[in-house]
Design a protein that fits this description.
- This protein is α/β, with parallel strands linked by helices.
- It has one domain: 3-Layer(aba) Sandwich (Glutaredoxin).
- The protein has helices at residues 4-18, 33-36, 40-43, 90-105, 123-131, 146-151, 181-188; strands at 47-49, 61-63, 69-71, 80-85, 111-116, 140-141, 158-162, 168-173.
- The protein has a six-stranded mixed beta sheet, covered by helices on one side. It has a two-stranded antiparallel ribbon with strand order 2-3.
- The relative contact order is 0.20.
């Protein structure tokens, strides 16, 4: 007979094996969001992709839990960082504090837009951000995963950077420390570089 402690270990092990943020990856599953709090640097190991450089900002509209809408096209005029994430994704949760800080530090010259890929319970996204002390990111929702399909996203988080004219500069696949020195260099890039 299993002890309570052994049973918890088995359940946690199964959750890690089953969970993950890769949609169709053969790689080992990523740990769940609750584990990200204990080892965030392990989760922030994404890669930059410039293969779609110059692509135009898609003409899509999103809403928040209250029903307020936002058209992406209305955000042209200053650089835009779109982050696709989910509450159940460990690397997404690990990078939230650094995205929140980036949004605060660059509020005048960069829009940081987080768009949740969670399905169902839209009010949970806003509650999730509030519980983690996130103050500068809004709970935009994409319950149909329209943006993930538009970008052919296979891994969360995926973050796409657009210049002020709405042209893609790069996308970052996986978690990243958005407060690091490398971020400033990445954000200095434009399509004409």
């Amino acid at each position: 007979m299993l002890s309570s402690r052994s049973l918890k270990a088995v359940i946690l092990g199964c959750a890690v094996l089953i969970g993950g943020c890769d949609r169709e990856s053969a790689d080992k599953a990523q740990p769940q969001a609750s584990e990200a709090a204990t080892a965030p640097t392990k989760e922030l190991t994404g890669t930059i992709d410039r293969s779609k450089r110059g692509s135009h900002l898609p003409d899509l509209t999103f809403s928040d839990p209250t029903g307020k809408t936002l058209a992406l096209a209305s955000l042209k005029g200053k650089p835009l960082l779109i982050n696709l994430w989910a509450t159940w994704c460990a690397p997404c949760v690990a990078e939230l504090p650094t995205l929140d800080k980036l949004a605060a530090d660059r509020a005048g010259n960069l829009k940081v837009l987080t768009i949740s890929q969670d399905l169902g319970q839209p009010q949970r996204v806003g509650e999730f951000l509030a519980q983690r002390g996130v103050k500068n990111l809004e709970p935009w929702l994409d319950p149909d995963n329209a943006l993930a399909m538009q970008y052919d996203v296979q891994t969360l988080p995926t973050t796409i950077y657009y210049d002020a004219e709405g042209r893609e500069v790069w996308r970052f696949v996986g978690g990243h420390d958005w407060s690091g020195a490398e971020t400033a260099k990445m954000l200095a890039e434009t399509v004409s570089n």
